[in-house]
Amino acid sequence: MARLADYFVLVGYELDKRGSRDGQGQILQRFPEKDWEDNPFPQGIELFCQPSGWQLFTERNPPSFFVAVLTDISSERHYCACFTFWEAVESAQSQSHSRNGEEEEEELSSLVQPAQLFAPKSLVLVSRLDHTEVFRNSLGLIYTIYVDGLSASLENVIGNLLTCTIPITGGAQRTISLGAGDRQVIQTPINDSLPVSSCSVAVLFRQLGITNVLCLFCAALTEHKILFLSSSYQRLTDACRALLALMFPLKYSFTYVPILPAQLLEVLSTPTPFIIGVSSIFHSETQELLDVVIADLDGGTVTIPECIHISLLPEPLLHQTREALSMILDPELEVADLAFPPSTVSAPSLKMQDKEIRAVFLRLFAQLLQGYRWCLHIIRIHPEPVIRFHKAAFLGQRGLVEDDFLTKVLEGMAFAGFVTERGAPYRAIDLFDELVAHEVKRMRAEEGSKQKILRHIKELAEQLYKNENPYPAVTMHKVQKPTEGCYLRLHQRPFPRLDEGTVQWIIDQATAKLQTAPPAVKAEKKCMVPSGPPIAAIMERNGSALANSARRLEVVRNCISYVFENKMLEAKKLLPAVLRAMKGRAARHCLTQELNLHVQQNRAVLDHQQFDFIVRVMNCCLQDCTAMDEHGIAAALLPLVTAFCRKLSPGITQFAYSCVQEHVVWTNIQFWEAMFYCDVQNHIRALYLESNEENHVDEVMGRQEYQSQAEEKSALEIASEQRRLWPTMSREKQQELIQKEESTVFSQAIHYANRMSYLLLPLDTSKNRLLRSSGLGDVESVSNSFVTNSIAGSVAESYDTESGFEDAESSDVANYVVRFINRFVDKVCTESGVTNEHLKGLHIMIPDIVQMHIETLDAVHRESKRLPPIQKPKLLRPSLLVGEECVMEGLRVYLMPDGREEAAGGNIGGPPLLPAEGAIFLTTYRIVFKGTPTDPLVGEQVVVRSFPIASLTKEKKINVQAQVDQFIQEVLQLRSCTFQLLRIAFDEEVASESAEVFRKHLHKLRYPQHVRGTFAFTVGQSPKQAMQPKAKEKNPSLRTLSKNLMKNAKKTIGRPYVTRKKYTPPTWEQRSSQHFQEDDEDEISVSEEIDRSTLTPSTIIKPSDKMTMSHLVERACCRDYQRMGLGTLSNSLTRSKNEPFRISTVNRMYAVCRSYPGLLIVPQSIQDNTIQRISRCYRQNRFPVICWRNSRTKAVLLRSGGLHGKGVVGLFKSQNAPTAGQSQTDSTSLEQEKYLQAVINSMPHYADASGRNTLSGFTSAHMSSAALGPRARVVTLSTPKGVSAKGRESPRGKWGSIRASGRMSNYVLNMEIGSRLAGKDLLSAQHNGAPSEASFLRQHRASLYIIGDKSQLKGVKPDPLQHWEVVPIEVFDVRQVKASFKKLMKACVPGSPSTDPSLAYLRTLEESEWLSQIHKILQISVLVVELLDTGSSVLVSLEDGWDITTQVVSLVQLLSDPYYRTMEGFRLLVEKEWLSFGHRFSHRGAQTLAGQSSGFAPVFLQFLDCVHQIHLQFPMEFEFTQYYLKFLSYHYVSNRFRTFLLDSDYERIELGLLYEEKGERKSQQVYKSIWDYIDRLNKKTPVFFNYMYAPEDGEVLRPYSNISNLKVWDYYTQEVLSEGPSYDWELVQGQPEHVEEVDRQDSSAPQTKRKIIWPCYDNRSRVEPDAISKLLEELHNLEAELGQVPERWKDTWDKVKASQRTEARQEASRMASSSLLMSSSLLPHRRSLGVYLQESSVGSTLNLSLDSDTSSTSTPSSGKQGGRKSTSNLYSQFQMSESENRSYEGTLYKKGAFMKPWKPRWFVLDKTKHQLRYYDNRMDTECKGVIDLAEVESITPGTPTMGAPKTVEEKAFFDLKTTKRVYNFCAQDVQLAQQWIDRIQSCLSDA
């Protein structure tokens, strides 16, 4: 029960003070006069009675009433109900009254008879209860008694008023009467914790509107200052009351003054938050307040100053609240748009609406604070519960860490009060408790539906309404009211003075009565407060599906279990995924749980690798946590970091905490508090759990505990139980419990002091800072966790720095930590009631704890420095060849990715194989890298990159941004001409000296002093001997032989020659100038001596020479000569005269030409001594020798070096020009001429032409016209790029061969060759000024064409008497080849990926001009092939005769002679043209130190590339595969075999390489010759054999050489990282089987047939062999299984082919007719690309056409003529000729290309295909040619030329000019010609 009113006060105007500026009020009387003990009288009531100041007024105002609120010092609120009326002041006083406040009024009063003045008087009730209406009625009653003079005694009424007691709560209804015939009913709220608002909230919303009120609401909750303005005092009070009501269940604890008196206005500038109401008279005074939110109730506005930011409710709550409010305040809104709105929308009463609004806010709080009880930590239960709220956990679990509003609310005072008040586990509960515990789920379920939400709001509103008005049928009040306008009565007596005694007596009576009455104690209904569902259950909708995806958690679990099972490789693979997953909270929790399980299983002691891994994961886990640790991750890790450890040495253990200190969370004092309270709660809980097994301490974080809540009681439940029992316990028991709890808290405080020292003291305590700012080599953790360098900075954030933390920088680490821990201990111990003695003890203990820990750390730090570095993957050793030995053991390196993106996971996707970690090995033969990728997803793969040392072309140091974790010193880039690039970064464990030694060794091995130092020689010896130049003589007979050879050579040659030509190959620049410059008498005489002495051809050879001869005869070139029938060595060298050529032994001692073979083919008629003289005219003495003869035309191919200047002069100068030493030069040049003439004479058709070199078979007209032009003419062949090198219509070989008679006449070598190679300006070197047309038309071919270098033949005048012709061409020199090759390497194997478009692959490829050079070589070769095929001989005489000459000559032979396209033939070709004829392999390959400066020139590689291009175009013509070519290109630079060493046969003999004893090779495993190796390998496996090989007899190939037809050789671009280059066959065999076994062991995995083949990793041909190889292999395996002796694959293959042929024949005979029909309708196949597996031309058994031009199967004869035609008619293949579109047709004469006659042809103009086609005659179905009209430039009238039809008029000729050439036509007559021209023109214009 409580008093309705504590004091009654009468306040009046203080007249004595009126002289002062402001009037004042004074208390006239107050009852009771003594203060109540429980409630002292509040000060300053007189201020609040007249808030706008005490003033006198000139007229009476009606009485006013308002309630002011005063707050006393103990924050109790006193409600002062003020009833104010006005009384007149006596006039005498009024005259002496100086001022009325306003100066004007003062003047008036002095002028006019002053009016009467009225002073205010107030009746005030002071109460602690807020019953506004009762106060209004009661004070009104007193006023009425006074005004209307009722009979009741005022003293009595006041006495009764002051003694009236009513129940505070419980919903009682009490009727009171003040003894004046009145009756009032007072209803108390059922639950006093719910505020009473009457209808003030609804009114507030009407005044300000939804948004404004919400804004004020948020401002009040986030502790802003709020000021209400209104001219009505009661409204101010109501508004403030409404705002407080909205804030329920939080209570406002700052300054709260609903009506602020004028005198106290300066309160507004207080720094603390407030809610204050001020009369709007003072509006101007409030203007300068900068940080106050002002709400003007009268104007309905809320003003927020600029400097204030009010955090609003978090979405979606804000939106939902607004929506709900508008539904309640504006119910018409819903139906505003309806066509038939309901007639009435029932608006609820204002009071009901008020409750509905409050219901909305109640729901809002329930949603904001749902689950708050799960974050309460109960630290003490007895004697009083101490409860703390874990803010961070609440925000974290609610997912609102970022939310400004909720964070501020939780940090606010109101919330602190809320926790204190509502945290208690055992108390009475109210509506809010039930709502937050039981209705949250419902609110979530109803979120979307407005109807349901409204229903819920209405239900809540009902309860709130019922709470305020428990009895709906209120008995009518009966209170007398004064008569209307009574206040205006003129004569009214003043309010009487009351008799204090009477009132006091009434009061005393009542007090006595109360004391005797039994105390009406109404027992509170206490109970356990329900906690409601845990946050986790509520928040499920917020956790995004991604964060909780089970797959990620699975990955985390697997990874951790791998670590503990020590499967580190597996764990590493998962690591990136785990680190990514750690961004999600669920994954981090999962990690802590997993680790916790392992700690419980006693697996906390780890090895180094595991330790590093766990620490790394923990760091990653912590780096995403904020300092608040809202998800409890750091809290969960805290026990773990002190559990996981590793042994550093006996007695020294390093714990994980020393490696996870870089996180800001450890310096956050709130974190430690929350952790401390959480642990204390667990221990207190354990203390009260009866069951003993529960006594073990759970160091389990709160959340896990909540999950197990079903079985175990939560701490709050236990506390509530204990509080219930507390009053029933004995005093001793209570003391004991208090004691136990206190010591629990104390022990935890000690524990935490230790823990904090662990995490705050850095491992290296000598450093003067608390946190290490460097990461643990873990890039992510460094970058993301922001690290404060000193605790001073971080602690300052958490609390004030009053205790001298500013100078903390200067003191040492230990002091910081001690202070930090002291702070913490003080705070938590005072909060949780630890006794003072204990606290002192703690303060003494802390420095000791810290000191001890520092000592431990020193030892750990020392040991951890000694730790071996992280264990790196084991170094894998490469497999070596027989005889290959390691020079340097593996150096640990990283193989960095280069510009090829495949391996780095670039353009093909997949995990990156590079960078890889492994080692680099240097052997006597190769540089090998072997290792494993650093990307753990491919960690099992082995990466091998290697290349032969001999192929190294460039080595440089570069700097690379490392992607690898470890620090890397520098990167060495090694580039090899086998198109390999090693970018190796040495690991830090490799000393820089070792890297230097590596480079030096590499250099030494790359450039040995002498060729004997190369691997091919040193193989099998120990590497040390390899460095000494002289090896022991293994084979004396050989040595003596070579010595004898040398002696003889020296004797014969004579001194001067020898001294000058000692073996030191000159440098490139000097070479042309050095030799034979002094071509003088002396030199000649020497040669004459030689002539006489030994070099005369003799039939007797000395015995020592005989051996030499027999060896020479065995040489390749000799075997080839005999094959071609170019001469024999029979009859002891007596020549058979009928042979045109003989084998000359003139060079058997290599005296004439060092770089030629010993036996040479020369014309029969030429003497050896002539040869010697001739040789002087040529560079390097390389005179013309025959190297091949066309078996059909008997034309020969010759090769030689270029001519020396002086020699050439004699050949071509006009004969009469005087020269010095004329006789001598003449004689030489004559001999030279004689020599060439002898070659010409040897050709059969030359003899027929009676000694003239004109060709038979021409008409006399041709003869005569041919005689006009000079015989030896010079044709310049400089090549414009665009010129096509495809003689499309030349009929022969693969371009259409006609085997009919008249062969020769068809093959006239027209100048088309010239035109093709040179474009239009053919005869630029015309000497006689004859019109070029005429000379073009000569139908004559020279018998011998000399292809020479244009630059050498400058100034050469053609001589009409010679029978040969010089074709000068421009060729590129070796310098260009080198430059081009460098660019090609950079294009195919770029050093680093480039983003620059100018460095794109295709562009760099084009800029390298490699393909242009290939094009040039092929072009020249095709030209020579055509010349030879038409019966002219050709002498190739370019540069020194050993580079381009060799390329061209070899290609010509390859194209012309099918024999060279077999394996045996190709070997012979290479041995003869490249080895015997002295291509300088050692010099061009820079194989020794001498060649280092000149660099690598890939001349042979270029030749092999050309062969590869031809192979691509004619895949069925070669017996060998592309792999064979790659094999050669790899090993010709690898120095593994001796075949390609040295520069000539002479040098090879000198070293004793050429003739090895027969028995010797058997004994050694090592193969010295690449050919033997290939033969052996070919017997074993079909790797070199081309299954498509199906040659045609005597086939001449004419490949397209346009750049568009050339392909980049895949040898340059592909690589196999799984095993390195596949050309060292022994090294790569036997691996796949092993891999399969490994797969089989893991039978748990599902077996799959799928193979994944990585383009850059696997050897495709081995992993996925072609069908035939696979079948042969399976056959072989079957034979082996059946125990048969497996037969060789070649035999099997031959059998298959044979059986196939017989089947084909039978088939053919059976189906001859049908097959003919079939095959003629089959479209022409281009046999060059068809996969054509049968050799008979009848009936195709297997003919896969890939792109077809001409029929190869139509008739037996046509199988031979696979002609190639323009691709423009490719698409005509789908239609036969009958159905062709023929717009216009007829016969025209067409002039053939150069030197071809005019022929009548049947022409068809086709408008649809837009082309002009021609046929041999009208009936012909096969089109002979097509002129694409798109290419036609113009049609012009032509002139008749030679050989044109005689009868036709001149005007019937017309020319058609296309982009490619000019066609000359002639019609039968002029009209027809005109018609044709018109038709073609119209066709052109149509287009």
The low-confidence parts are 92-113, 540-547, 691-711, 768-811, 1023-1044, 1047-1107, 1130-1135, 1207-1225, 1247-1339, 1557-1565, 1631-1646, 1713-1779
Largest sheet: 7 strands, antiparallel
**Helix/strand class:** alpha+beta
Biggest sheet strand order reads 25-24-23-22-28-27-26
Radius of gyration: 57 Å
The end-to-end span amounts to: 113 Å
Large-scale geometry: elongated
What percentage of amino acids are in beta strands? 5-15%
Q: What is the share of helical residues?
A: 40-55%
- What is the mean predicted local confidence, pLDDT? 74
Say how many strands there are.
44
DSSP helical segment count: 68
Task: Summarize the structure in words.
- With 1887 residues, this protein is of the alpha+beta class.
- It has 68 helices and 44 strands.
- It has a seven-stranded antiparallel beta sheet with strand order 25-24-23-22-28-27-26. A seven-stranded antiparallel beta sheet has the order 41-40-39-38-44-43-42, with helices on one face.
- Helix 6 crosses helix 8.
- About 21% of the residues have low confidence.
